[in-house]
Write a structure and sequence with these properties.
three-stranded antiparallel beta sheet; six-stranded mixed beta sheet; 10 helices; alpha+beta; single chain
């Protein structure tokens, strides 16, 4: 039995790997870096899954990150973080990680995109993500999630959030890594505080994690990918949000993402905002704007 500070190894032949069944994942869940296999159920009833990476060129860096996390007692104490238990090795090469299945859980991305789910519940869950991020950003070690987005979280049957893509994170290391929100916002190349390598991957950092969370929250509110808006489109939309009662501190936190100032995490529970949150949708704003244009013709 390994202690919390170690990571074990699972050795499989190529034939063993081929026999493993795929773990059922909703096709709407964004997952481009790996395939999830069912390994086995251990005596305590937990099913062990194997995350088999398509591209293993950076796996040693990922293993090093996991080992460092396991040496950090503050991170180990965070129930929200689901750590790999073992490295999967086949033909002498590391090819993935073993992780425990979170029973009866739902991907956060599916919840946030479901129009049948109340905005209150969505904001409650995002508020929990902000509280987790507040904890990780206050650590003495420089720990960053890097690829922070809704599909890297699960929500268990008790409405607790769980981070499941921890091997993409970094600790005391300024490495460049894929990050969905950062690479889909062309405006960031004009903002000096965000650094990208020669192939366009962002370097980890506090500003990057906060950017990802703030955009994730605002995208849920807007029901739209606002990071893809131009500066002018975003500015006009934020002015509209102010006009319907969204708190000025929240708007300022979004504007601040595109300045040289350090980013500020939105920790407000949006359910406390005194406005009709349906009005905040980007599609509603666009419809109202089009109606105003027609009136002036």
């Amino acid at each position: 039995m390994l202690d919390n500070f170690q990571i074990g190894e699972i050795h499989l032949t190529e034939a063993n790997v081929k026999k493993l069944k795929n773990f059922g994942i909703d096709p709407k869940v964004s997952n481009t870096e790996s395939v999830i296999k069912v390994y086995k159920t251990i005596p305590n009833g937990v099913t062990i899954l194997l995350k088999m990476l398509y591209d293993t060129r950076n796996i040693e860096s990922k293993i090093d990150t996991i080992k460092k996390i396991r040496q950090n007692e503050e991170l180990l104490a965070m129930d929200e973080i689901v750590l790999p238990t073992d490295v999967v090795i086949s033909k002498g090469e590391s090819i993935g990680f073993a992780i425990p299945e979170i029973k009866n859980s739902t991907n956060l991305g599916l919840i946030l995109q479901d129009p049948k789910v109340s905005i209150k519940y969505k904001m409650d869950l995002l508020y929990k993500v902000s509280k987790l991020l507040s904890k990780t950003l206050s650590l003495n070690d420089n720990f960053y999630f890097n690829d922070l987005h809704e599909f890297n979280f699960l929500v268990d049957e008790n409405d607790n959030i769980k981070v499941i893509d921890i091997d993409s994170s970094s600790i005391n290391s300024n490495k460049a890594t894929p990050s969905y929100y950062l690479v889909t916002d062309p405006k960031l190349t004009e903002v000096p505080k965000y650094k990208f390598n020669e192939v366009g991957l962002p370097y980890s950092g506090r500003d990057c994690d906060i950017y990802c969370y703030n955009i994730m929250l605002m995208n849920t509110l807007a029901n739209y990918q606002i990071q893809k808006l131009t500066f002018l489109e975003l500015s006009e939309y934020l002015d509209y949000l102010l006009s319907i009662g969204i708190d000025e501190t929240i708007i300022d936190s979004i504007i601040n993402l595109y300045t040289t100032k350090p980013n500020e995490l939105i920790t407000t529970n949006l359910n406390d905002i005194n406005c009709n949150l349906y009005q905040a949708r980007y599609s509603t704003y666009k419809q109202l704007k089009e109606m105003e244009v027609k009136k002036t013709r």
